[in-house]
Write a structure and sequence with these properties.
Helices cover about 65% and strands about 5% of the residues. By secondary structure, the chain is mainly α.
């Protein structure tokens, strides 16, 4: 999208309403992606730590309820931005997600990104530690996870931790 806007020479003065509407949707999708990543991280940690709790929260059609959580999170975060001012700057080749407040920083965007970073990092680090503990205790994974899941999860984690 950024390339197309740059090639078309789109600037804020040319299409302010178009840009604001599209960028509100784009940022909303980013918030939904972040929420989905956090739900997936929670699911993976529970797979390794408590299969019973994982099944209680995610088994069967319960996973569809998490779609509502993701959509609700994205709408909630996006709709609480006070005076959004989003635009594409072709000189920078960047989307700017500011507000029209005295402090133009979009705190919803900043807090979302920081929370997602820490939540996902801690969740996957915890999952990796739990996996190492289970594999070191004789490699018996019990009914917690399949051998294939363990191998794939172990192979995709950094070996230098």
């Amino acid at each position: 999208m950024a390339t197309l806007l740059s090639l078309l020479g789109t600037s804020l003065s040319v299409s302010q309403k178009f840009q604001l509407e599209r960028l509100i949707n784009a940022l909303g999708l980013w918030f939904a992606y972040c929420a989905a990543a956090m739900v997936l991280a929670l699911n993976r940690v529970l797979e390794f730590s408590s299969k019973r709790v994982c099944e209680m929260l995610f088994d069967g059609k319960k996973c569809y309820a998490w779609i509502l959580v993701v959509i609700g999170y994205a709408c909630g975060v996006q709709c609480t931005v006070n005076k959004p001012f989003y635009y594409y700057n072709p000189s920078e080749g960047a989307f700017n997600f500011f507000t029209l407040n005295p402090n133009p920083t979009n705190m919803n965007h900043v807090c979302n990104n920081l929370f997602k970073f820490f939540f996902v990092t801690i969740s996957y680090a915890l999952m990796w530690v739990l996996l190492k503990i289970k594999l070191r205790s004789g490699g018996q994974l019990g009914g917690q996870i399949s051998t294939l899941e363990a191998k794939v999860s172990y192979l995709t984690q950094p070996q230098n931790l």
